[in-house]
Specification:
Layout lengths: L10 H13 L4 H18 L14 H19 L4 H18 L1 H5 L1 H15 L6 H6 L11 H7 L31
């Protein structure tokens, strides 16, 4: 038997392409892990398990940190411009829930939050192929600095205007004030 390949056509294909485009413009998997970690921590906090430990002011911190972690994950998805800040906050909150929320959602939620925050921190948007080709190359028309050449002891380039014309060169000695001045 041959396997039939199902290819979406028309609107389905456009929707799939639009979804992929949207997903690639943000730290998607990092945000999903942060949201999953926050959800898991929140669910273990509200669980009816006899081992549940509430630390903090009547357990408020135990509920507040995972809620803020969830909000941070949503912000990573829907406002990726500030991904560095949000990912650092997610990592700090995930580590902070170790104390406040049942050992960080029994370690699973904390690890998901830390790994998701790290993925979001490391993510960078895709660039156009033209921009990737230019990366690493010096901008056009950039000339070496004359100051660096003097520090290195090299002779400055002769491309400067007036450098070839000896009549415009000053013969003044810089050690004697007023030397080379003409009236």
């Amino acid at each position: 038997m041959t396997a039939a390949h199902h290819t979406p056509s028309g609107r389905g294909r456009q929707a799939l392409d639009a979804w992929r485009q949207w997903r690639h413009t943000r730290p998607f998997w990092g945000a999903v892990l942060v949201i999953a970690g926050g959800t898991e921590i929140l669910l273990t906090e509200a669980a009816a398990i006899p081992i549940v430990v509430h630390i903090g002011l009547l357990g408020v911190a135990g509920y507040l940190i995972p809620i803020i972690l969830l909000i941070t994950g949503l912000l990573l998805l829907f406002h990726p411009v500030q991904r560095t800040f949000y990912s650092l906050i997610a990592i700090i909150l995930a580590l902070g829930c170790w104390i406040t929320s049942n050992l960080g959602g029994f370690l699973v939620g904390m690890l998901a939050g830390v790994i998701g925050g790290s993925l979001a921190f490391a993510w960078r948007p895709r660039q156009d192929p033209e921009q990737e080709d230019r990366r690493g190359k010096s901008p056009p028309g950039q000339r070496p600095s004359a100051g660096i050449a003097l520090i290195k002891g090299e002779h400055p380039d002769q491309d400067e205007p007036g450098a070839d014309d000896p009549s415009e060169a000053s013969t003044a000695d810089s050690r004697t004030p007023g030397a080379g001045l003409t009236k």
